[in-house]
């Protein structure tokens, strides 16, 4: 089992409160977040963009691994993951994640797109999300 650790500190109520998010590795260290960074456009981060970054990086690594296993070389992958949060009853829920990826590879386009679909379904963060996951993949 591999365990990675992220942590958050929060002080105050929801709208006036402020928090900081960090990772054990130090890649994120006391990065600010709050109501204004989550529901408005203030500087800082929010849980959804952090999940998006995790999803995009996980998918890209999974796709690279799967293409390598297929003997494909010359691989370069650029991915974003848009995480959509919708009103759900009295609260909110993440209902969708949409991957947009541009793939360069020394292989047939149909083969690369087939492997990308497998990576979309198989990457650990995709498996974690209880959401509809869609994708626009382009081979360049």
UniProtKB/TrEMBL annotation:
InterPro entries xref list: KH_dom-like_a/b (IPR015946), OsmC/Ohr_fam (IPR003718), OsmC/Ohrsf (IPR036102), OsmC_Ohr_Peroxiredoxin (IPR052707), Peroxiredoxin_OsmC (IPR019904)
GO molecular-function term, one example from the UniProt record: peroxidase activity
Source taxon at top rank: Bacteria
One Pfam family per UniProt: OsmC
One annotated GO biological process: response to oxidative stress
Region called Disordered, residue ranges: 1-20
Name of the molecule in the record: OsmC family peroxiredoxin
Organism: Paracoccus liaowanqingii
